[in-house]
Each structure stands twice: as structure tokens, then as C-alpha cells.
Design goal:
The chain is an alpha+beta fold. Among the domains are: about 10-35 and about 140-155; about 275-420, no CATH class; about 445-575, Alpha-Beta Complex (endopeptidase fold (from Nostoc punctiforme)), CATH 3.90.1720. The chain is built from 18 helices and 13 strands. It has helices at about 10-15, 20-45, 50-60, 80-105, 110-165, 170-190, 195-230, 230-270, 275-295, 300, 320-330, 340-350, 395-400, 410-420, 455-460, 485-495, 505-510, 565-570; strands at about 65, 70, 310-315, 350-370, 375-395, 475, 480, 510-515, 525-530, 535-545, 550, 555-560, 570-575. The strands form four sheets. Strands 8-13-9-10-11-12 form a six-stranded antiparallel β-sheet. A three-stranded mixed β-sheet has the order 3-5-4. A two-stranded antiparallel ribbon has the order 1-2. Strand 6 (about 475) and strand 7 (about 480) form a beta hairpin. This is NlpC/P60 domain-containing protein.
Length: about 575
């Protein structure tokens, strides 16, 4: 049975909130579409030929109430009824054909009638099947529209809940639980039926029986009293046993409900694929990134002949938990082979490599010597100077996923999986870029270090972004930063007159003079290698002296370079060229 859609009513105060109004408008539109489809079904069904049929049809409808809305169930076209009615027709026509067949051999006219009859019946059955299929499609369409309207209503109720409880839902998991609770309340309200009249009639009937039973009950009571007096110990034992049974049953029932609810929560917050498939899919994505990195590293060989190559490159990498969370939402218990097309699509959306040729007309001085006189002359000449601009943009995997068309519910679950790390916090080992961001570490730089104007300018700019999260491909305050994006931005905007563009960690090393560790001073850059799978420098920070740096870890923070991790990955120091 398909229910009619529910139309919610909100107060003017509720609708004053833009989010509630937007959600309520969407819900109203969804209800309008569902009602239109339901009305079509109802209008086709409610064409009474006799009053008796109308009354009978009306008696089959169940009325439901949800606040001010009324629901009428529309009966789905019955396969059993359809086959039964068709079967009866087939039986009758079969008997008729057998009767005619007895004489058709001797009568050409009868034979012709027989063939014509069969052809007509075939046409009738074809039309009948088409009509029945059309009814089913119309019913299914109406049912889906009602489901969509229910979903829109839940979203509207959730927006109202957020308006009424602005402090609730401080994290994705609690928001998910709240929305889940609203869905249950909404479904319960829709499913609820008015049982008052049934209860009243049952009570009335019971009243008549009570009077007749009263006398018999009195006699039975006397006998029971006598039995209890003579068997008091046995009855006490039975009562205690019964009480224990009820307590244990209640405990197991509660545990069962708790287990079911807990299982749903665990599954909703967990990566459900096998570990080898999760890691394997991530390795396949890393292989695509390695191929891109190799392509860029070989640009000067595959595109030779240019006078200059200019690079503007974002870092190449991703957060493996973002990838695993997205694949879980899309495929649930996925296999490595199953997601290859999706990995390729995500990769193409995340990275954009462009090669642009620029030809500049430059002037140079040439000299020539007269072979007879030995006189040397110079002159200016124009020539073409060929430049290849290599630009790589990493939009960030999280940004791609956020704009991939996931529903609101799927995005909420994606955020929950990121927050819980799929309940597998160690699946990707010690990947520092996969760890969730926390509080940043502050540090007081000694006053004497700040007497260096260039360093003071760098720190003034860098400290504006303390606490910003690590975002692959990020290179501005609007997108947040990755490690090289952060350092590039500080260099370009600190007021020291530098302009290096957007470089990778390895690219930043190219604009520095490499210096020994003993010569490092505040304002120099510090480079690390092997923090992820790439050649050369893979991470960069700004050295501030006394074994400390400011860098974009997760989040942007001060950190000691003397820790075991950074000492193991230390590469070199570099001083930015003037």
C-alpha cells in the first residue's frame, strides 16, 4: 500500500530562519509532486459505477494522522488478482476453442472464425498486460515521490531542530545521531494509528462479560485462597523463579536491543572493506600520483628544445583516509578491482596539469670581426626566447569529494568516517598527513632573533595562520595550505620583495642556497625527505632558531626539529636568495 505524502506546517518564527525556510520550501515542492502522482492514481481508482462499490472501496482505506496531515493508502495493483481474473478468462476461452475445434475440420467458415478469435484474444491480452504494467509503473513512481517527500520533510525537521538547538551537533557523529533520531520519530509518527475507538469498543464488550464472570470468579477465588494456604512454600518458590526469569529476559532483551543499535553505529562509523582492499586501493591511487610525478620530472626530456622551463607546482599527494571514506560511502564493502574506474575519475578531478608555451622577443648584442681589416663591430638584434610554463593544480581530494554529488546523508557519513578514521586508526601506518588535526603548538621567539627585519616580516605573516589545517594542494588562506603552499605564500606575502610563485618543497630548495646545519639561522628554510613517496625534498618549514620551526603539519604549528621523526627525515637547510 502506498501512503499519501505528509505536509509539514512550520510557524512564522521557524520560517524566519533562512535554513529552515529553504528546507521547508523544498519539502513543500516534494510533497506537491508526490500528491500530484497520488491524485492521478486515486482519480483512476475512484470512478464508482455503483454506490455499493464506492462504499466497499472506502472501507478498505486506512486513515493515518501526523499532526495536521492526513494520509490515505492507495492499493498497489495486485498481481494475484490480475492473474486470477486473467486465468478465469483463459479457462472460458479455452473451453470455447475446444468446442469449436470439434467442427472446424469440416467447416472452413468455422475455422476462419476460430483463427480470428485467437488473434483478437492475443491482442486483448497484450493490451491487458500493457495496461497492468502501466499501473505498476505509476504506482512505483508515486511511491518513490512519497519517499523523496519524506526525506525532504526529515531535512526540514532537522533544520528546525538545529535552529531550536544551536549548541547541539558539535561534531559530525552527534549530528548523524540527531538526524537518525529525527528519522525514527518521523517514521513512528507516520506509522501511528488511532486506536482509541478500537479500545473503547473492546471495553464495552468486556463490560458485559465481566458481570457474568463475577460470580464464577468469586467461587474460584475461594478455592485459590484455600490452595495458597496449604501450598505457601511451593508458591513462593515459583514466584521467585518467575521473577528471576522476568529479570533475565528483560536483561537479554535490553542487551539485544543495545547490541543491534551498537552494531548499526559501529558499521556506520567503520570502513567495511577488507584491510588488503583498503590498502590496495590506496596504493593504486599512489601509483597514479607516482606516474604524474614522473611525468613532470621528465618534462625537460619529453619537451626538449626550450630556452627556459618555469614550474608552478602543487604538491602531489592525498589523505588516504579521505579516499577510504569516500569509497566506503560509495561502495560499502568494496574490492580493489571494483573501484579502479572511480580511482581514475577521482585522480582526474584532483589534478590538473597544463603545459603552456610562451615566446618572448628579446634583444641581444652580437659582435662580428671583419676578416680583412680585423675591425670588430657590435649590433643589437631581436630573437625569439622559448619558455614552457608547467603548471600543476592539486584541488585536494576532500574538495573533489565534497563536489562529487554525494547526498547530504552520504556527506555526513563521509565526515563521520573521517572523524573516526573508520575505526582503523593505524591502517595507514605512520603517515603524518593522515593524522587528524589537533591543537597547534605556540612558541615565543627570542627577542634578539626578531631584530632581523627579514625574519620578523616572515614570522609576522606566518603566525597569522597558526592552527590552519593541512590541505593537500592548498596554497592560500581561503583553501588552507599544504607544507610548500604555506611556505611559498609566506615568502611571497611577507613584504621582503620575494616572488617565487607556488613551488613544491623540492622547488623551494631550488630558490635557496644550500647551507650547512651549523650555519642555519632564523629565516632559513629547513627541508626533509621521505615523509611520503617522492624523490628529493618532500617537506619544508621555516627555521626559527633554537631547534624549532614553524611549518604546516596538521595543523600549522611550531615544532621541534630535534624529535626522532624529524631527525630521521632531515635533508638540508637552505637560505633564500636575494
Amino acid at each position: 500500500m502506498a501512503k499519501r505524502p505528509t505536509r509539514l506546517r512550520f510557524t512564522e518564527d521557524d520560517l524566519a530562519d533562512s535554513h529552515v525556510k529553504k528546507a521547508a520550501d523544498r519539502a513543500d515542492k516534494a510533497v506537491d509532486r508526490a500528491e500530484k502522482a497520488a491524485d492521478k492514481l486515486a482519480s483512476k481508482k475512484a470512478k464508482p459505477k455503483l454506490k455499493l462499490e464506492t462504499d466497499a472501496a472506502g472501507s478498505r482505506k486506512a486513515k493515518l494522522r501526523f499532526e495536521k496531515a492526513e494520509f490515505t493508502e492507495i492499493e498497489r495493483p495486485s498481481v494475484a488478482k490480475h492473474m486470477a481474473s486473467r486465468g478465469a478468462a483463459v479457462t472460458l476461452t479455452s473451453k470455447a476453442h475446444r468446442a469449436v475445434s470439434e467442427y472446424e475440420d469440416d467447416n472452413i467458415g468455422v475455422q476462419a472464425v476460430q483463427e480470428t478469435t485467437k488473434a483478437v484474444e492475443s491482442t486483448v491480452y497484450t493490451v491487458d498486460h500493457a495496461v497492468y504494467s502501466h499501473k505498476l509503473k505509476a504506482y512505483d513512481k508515486a511511491e518513490k515521490l512519497v519517499e523523496k517527500s519524506d526525506k525532504a520533510n526529515v531535512n526540514a525537521l532537522y533544520e528546525k531542530f538545529k535552529k531550536d538547538n544551536p549548541d547541539a551537533g558539535s561534531n559530525p557523529f552527534s549530528r548523524w545521531q540527531q538526524k537518525r533520531a529525527i528519522k525514527k520519530e518521523y517514521a513512528a509518527a507516520k506509522a501511528g494509528k488511532n486506536t482509541a475507538s478500537t479500545t473503547a469498543s473492546a471495553s464495552k464488550g468486556a463490560g458485559k462479560a465481566t458481570g457474568k464472570a463475577a460470580q464464577g470468579a468469586k467461587n474460584i477465588t475461594e478455592r485459590v485462597t484455600e490452595f495458597c494456604t496449604t501450598h505457601s512454600k511451593t508458591i513462593l518458590f515459583v514466584l521467585i523463579a518467575g521473577l528471576l526469569f522476568m529479570i533475565l529476559s528483560g536483561m537479554f532483551s535490553s542487551c539485544s536491543a543495545m547490541f543491534q543499535g551498537g552494531t548499526q553505529i559501529i558499521l556506520g562509523t567503520s570502513f567495511t572493506a577488507k584491510e588488503e582492499d583498503i590498502i590496495g586501493a590506496d596504493n593504486d591511487y599512489k601509483a597514479l600520483e607516482a606516474a604524474l610525478r614522473n611525468k613532470i620530472n621528465n618534462i625537460e626530456r619529453t619537451h626538449s628544445g626550450y630556452d627556459e622551463y618555469r614550474y608552478d607546482l602543487d604538491e602531489i599527494n592525498h589523505n588516504p583516509y579521505e579516499l577510504a571514506a569516500y569509497l566506503t560511502v560509495k561502495f560499502e564493502d568494496y574490492t580493489r578491482d571494483e573501484v579502479q574506474a572511480t580511482l581514475q575519475w577521482l585522480f582526474e578531478q584532483q589534478y590538473e596539469l597544463t603545459l603552456t608555451e610562451v615566446v618572448e622577443i628579446r634583444t641581444r648584442t652580437t659582435s662580428s670581426t671583419d676578416p680583412e681589416t680585423g675591425e670588430t663591430t657590435t649590433e643589437e638584434e631581436d630573437y625569439e626566447y622559448y619558455i614552457l610554463n608547467v603548471k600543476l593544480r592539486n584541488k585536494g581530494l576532500n574538495s573533489v569529494i565534497s563536489n562529487s554529488g554525494l547526498s547530504e546523508d552520504d556527506m555526513e557519513r563521509y565526515r563521520i568516517l573521517l572523524q573516526t578514521r573508520g575505526n582503523r586508526p593505524d591502517i595507514f601506518g605512520n603517515d603524518i598527513y593522515a593524522t587528524p588535526g589537533g591543537e597547534y603548538t605556540d612558541y615565543d621567539i627570542p627577542g634578539e632573533a626578531l631584530t632581523d627585519t627579514r625574519f620578523a616580516n616572515m614570522i609576522r605573516e606566518a603566525e597569522k595562520y597558526l592552527g590552519y589545517p593541512y590541505v593537500w594542494g592548498g596554497s592560500s588562506p581561503s583553501t588552507s595550505f599544504d607544507c610548500s603552499g604555506f611556505v611559498s605564500y609566506v615568502i611571497n606575502h611577507c613584504g621582503n620583495g620575494w616572488s617565487v610563485g607556488r613551488l613544491t618543497a623540492n622547488g623551494l630548495m631550488g630558490v635557496c642556497d644550500i647551507i650547512p646545519k651549523s650555519s642555519a639561522k632564523p629565516g632559513d628554510l629547513i627541508f626533509f625527505q621521505g615523509t611520503y613517496d617522492t624523490s628529493g625534498a618532500s617537506h619544508v618549514g621555516i627555521y626559527v632558531g633554537n631547534g624549532m620551526m614553524i611549518h604546516c603539519g596538521n595543523p600549522i604549528s611550531y615544532a621541534s626539529i630535534e624529535s626522532n621523526y624529524w631527525q630521521q627525515h632531515f635533508y638540508c637547510f637552505g637560505r633564500i636568495r636575494n
